[in-house]
Specification:
alpha/beta, Alpha-Beta Plaits, Rossmann fold, Serine Threonine Protein Phosphatase 5, Tetratricopeptide repeat, 8-stranded mixed beta sheet, 33 helices, Guanylate cyclase domain-containing protein, Nucleotide_cyclase, transmembrane helix, A/G_cyclase
Length: about 800
């Protein structure tokens, strides 16, 4: 019996317009047309690594591994069809999960692809929103919204677009209006782009382990907002609001299985308390740092986590009986406000968890943030095995190195195998796929569709969970959606759970990199750290915002504190190395990067950072060697090749840089760093039009990924406008650069543009101020774009100020 296999694929359906009439008029001609289609199209499908799945009359079912292969193949199919009489095609493309059953391909997503095709014009291509998301990052493609089709029997909500670039025809809306939801039947216009986001909201389906989960939702049905009277008049006032850390309950039993049980008790109480108004609840990441530690007092934990209260407890399980003890302690004076022991049968564990959490709420005098008019569904549970797999995936994901994140993927996949309905497992997969690409361990071309699929799956399962909305925000950010759409996901996540530290963390990053709202970014960065004070990655994000605000001493303290708590956290060393490099402290920067290569010698990001430091100092040969080590460790990463092209450029080896860029373009369509280097080279070659175009592509690619590189692309565009004598363009670029943070390199870019404009006094003044403010342009020593100024007395003076000798 053939094994059934699932995979993510781009699915293509084609249909010959008017074929039925042709068959009725001349069967032999119709048969010849099918043979011609087969003879011409099969080699094209093979060219783009596609599968010729089946022929259905005059229609074709094709399958591709990537969206771009499918789209590029279909465009070539339509181009070829134009020269063949009667071969008038409609084509539909969708991306989704399919089930391979022998030679057959089945699944809801196959159905969607087939039903999208009729919305295409003859000679045209229609795509679903998932495919459109991939094309949005490609400036060569233009698409137009058709609307949301009314597809009976299809559970997914989709939107359709037609490709209008590449000489493809636009769909006549009036022809398909009757098949669209919410369309104006008199004008044929779809209900509008806003309708894409109007997802049907269904009740929450929280999924905690079945043997430890409590029916917390039942407590919310009391009329109005629940307000529990204070049971202790001794609570001290806290200007920052009440706060609590729930320490991992100690497993007093001997077997390992009970360890998961006691952790689960802690988790459920955390989840309950996280929904309390004005109560700051420290996240799991930070509190579990103290698991098993007996060398620290409650008062010390309270100070480290900056909380007013600490809950601790223990669990002893024997057979069908369980005893749970818990006590609530005020941090400032170690006062025990409440304690209790509970002996229960395991079937009563649900009520017991609620009882403990409610008692704490009453003692803290808090109000539950419930929505009393919402329907409260029966809770869908998951198994303790699935939940344990998920927690291990989270642990490895938080390491943010290649080995850790790839291990996280395996745990999240095992979670899905154990429970295909557990939305947080899909959240974990979506986030990890994007993080792997974000850190340069994979490509966005491959991982964005995978992340999008899993984020959509999580949203379908439970659209009322903060984690789900945060994951969709991350996808929306990388997909280059309208910033307002991306922001709406972040805000919804925070609304659903104000204590979800990751939502504040990622929103802070978005505000910094995309919106350039650094003060608001700092606010949410600090909020995230308050909720998860011992999280290394949250601390790094806060440090980056502090750097953007030129609060570099604060950033240095933040990063050193992370290393103190997590002495082998790779990203902390790399971030501190980058901080020192941004200040021109080369020795310290090199030391930190080299320490990182010792901590994780097989992690390419350490070698990439070391290569950047060596290159920026003019040690280009050593820099190239380190870049090649990065590539050796990540042979399939186009990002490693991109960074190698940077090394070649600053080493003035423009030929090898160009050859490397060509290799990259043969492997991926998304390469903003390669675009940047190509733009620099074209500027050197005085191809101003080509340079301007590719630099804009680079800038668009870096939006949401790298504030520094986005500023470099803008700076080069400003130089091009100077050569083109387009002063309006120059002023526009300068205006945009002025919106960047202090340490993004943007101010130095303005200074360099001023030099090219001939305003040497202003240009050198800006560059000098940046050096004096510990904010120099890191490539000031080696940038070929500055060669024409290197003999200026002022330039030589600035090199000396920067503690560098003039380049020979």
């Amino acid at each position: 019996m053939t094994e059934k296999k699932r995979k993510l694929a781009a699915i293509v359906f084609t249909d010959i317009v008017g074929f039925t009439e042709l068959t009725a008029a001349d069967q032999n001609k119709a048969a010849d047309l099918l043979k011609t289609q087969r003879d011409i199209f099969k080699p094209l499908v093979n060219k783009y690594n596609g599968d010729w799945v089946k022929e259905m009359g005059d229609g074709l079912l094709l399958m591709f591994d990537t969206v771009m292969d499918a789209v590029e193949c279909c465009i070539e199919l339509q181009t070829s069809a134009q020269s063949i009489d009667d071969l008038n095609l409609r084509i539909g493309i969708h991306q989704g999960e399919i089930l391979l059953d022998g030679d057959d391909v089945i699944g809801d997503d196959v159905n969607i692809a087939s039903r999208a095709e009729p919305f295409s014009e003859p000679g045209g291509i229609v795509i679903t929103d998932r495919v459109n998301a991939s094309l949005m990052r490609e400036p060569a493609y233009k698409t137009k919204l058709i609307g949301k089709p009314s597809l009976k029997g299809v559970r997914q909500e989709i939107s359709l677009f037609c490709i209008i670039s590449h000489n493809l025809p636009e769909t006549d809306i009036s022809r398909v209006a009757a098949k669209l939801e919410d369309s104006d039947k008199t004008t044929g216009l779809p209900g509008g782009a806003d309708s894409i986001q109007n997802k049907t909201t269904r009740p929450s389906t929280s999924k905690m382990p079945i043997i430890i989960s409590g029916t917390v939702a039942a407590l919310l049905l009391i009329a109005g907002m629940i307000f529990i009277r204070n049971t202790s008049s001794s609570i001290s006032s806290n200007n920052d609001g009440e706060s609590i850390a729930v320490l991992p309950f100690v497993n007093m039993s001997s077997d390992k299985e009970n360890e998961y049980f006691s952790d689960g008790i802690t988790e459920e109480i955390l989840n309950y308390l996280a929904k309390i108004k004005n109560l700051r609840v420290i996240s799991r990441t930070s509190v579990f740092t103290y698991k098993g530690r007996e060398d620290i007092s409650i008062a010390e934990i309270g100070r480290e986590l900056d909380v007013s209260h600490v809950l601790e407890g223990s669990v002893r399980k024997a057979g069908n009986k369980v005893r749970i003890t818990a006590q609530l302690i005020r941090s400032e004076d170690d006062a025990h406000l409440w304690s209790e022991s509970y002996d229960r049968n395991l079937e009563d564990i649900f009520a017991l968890q609620d009882e403990i959490a409610q008692t704490i709420v009453g003692t803290l005098k808090m109000e539950y943030i419930g929505h009393i008019n919402d329907q409260q569904p029966e809770k869908t549970e998951t198994s303790i095995d699935a939940y344990n797999m998920y927690l291990q995936g989270k642990h490895f994901q938080d390491r943010r190195d290649e080995e850790g994140m790839k291990t996280a993927l395996s745990f999240f996949k095992k979670t899905v195998q154990l429970d295909p309905e557990y939305e947080l497992a899909y959240v974990g997969l979506a986030n990890t796929y994007l993080l792997l690409a974000d850190y340069g361990y994979a490509s966005f071309d491959e991982n964005l569709p995978l992340a999008e699929y899993n984020a959509n799956k999580a949203m379908d399962l439970n659209p009322t969970t903060a984690e789900v909305h945060a994951a969709n925000a991350y996808v929306s950010l990388i997909r280059k959606d309208d910033p307002q759409k991306t922001e709406s996901y972040y805000l919804k996540a925070i609304e659903l759970n104000p204590n979800y530290a990751t939502a504040h963390h990622w929103y802070s990053d978005f505000l910094k990199i995309v919106m350039k709202d650094y003060n608001k970014s700092l606010f949410h960065g600090k909020a995230a750290q308050k909720l998860d004070p011992l999280s290394g990655i949250i601390g790094i994000n806060l440090a980056k915002t502090q750097i953007s605000l030129n609060q570099k001493n604060d950033a240095e303290s933040t990063l050193k504190n992370i290393i103190k708590v997590h002495p082998e956290f790779l990203q902390a060393f790399l971030s501190l190395s980058n901080l020192y490099m941004s200040k021109g402290q080369w020795y310290e920067s090199e030391i930190m990067a080299k320490k990182a290569t010792v901590i994780k010698p097989d992690d390419g990001s350490s070698w990439k950072t070391l290569a950047e430091i060596l290159t920026a100092q003019g040690k280009t040969s050593d820099g190239i060697s380190a870049y090649k080590k990065f590539l050796e460790l990540n042979p399939s990463s186009t990002m490693a090749l991109e960074h190698l092209s940077v090394g070649y450029y600053f080493g003035r080896n423009f030929d090898d840089a160009s050859k490397t860029i060509k290799t990259i373009y043969n492997q991926t369509t998304f390469a903003p760093l390669a675009n940047l280097v190509e733009g620099w080279i074209l500027l050197q070659e005085k191809d101003y039009t080509g340079s301007l175009t590719i630099l804009q592509t680079s800038r668009n690619g870096f939006l949401g990924l790298s504030e520094f590189h986005e500023a470099l692309a803008l700076g080069a565009q400003g130089i091009v406008y100077v050569f083109q004598e387009d002063m309006k363009g120059v002023e526009l670029i300068i205006s945009e650069l002025e919106n960047f943070g202090e340490s993004a390199g943007a101010k130095s870019m303005i200074g360099i543009i001023k030099l090219y404009m001939g305003d040497h006094s202003k240009g050198y003044k800006i560059l000098q101020d940046n050096i004096l403010n510990d904010n120099p342009y890191i490539y000031f020593f080696i940038d070929p774009k500055l060669d024409q100024f290197r003999n200026d007395a002022k330039f030589i003076e600035l090199l000396t100020l920067y503690n560098k000798d003039p380049i020979s």
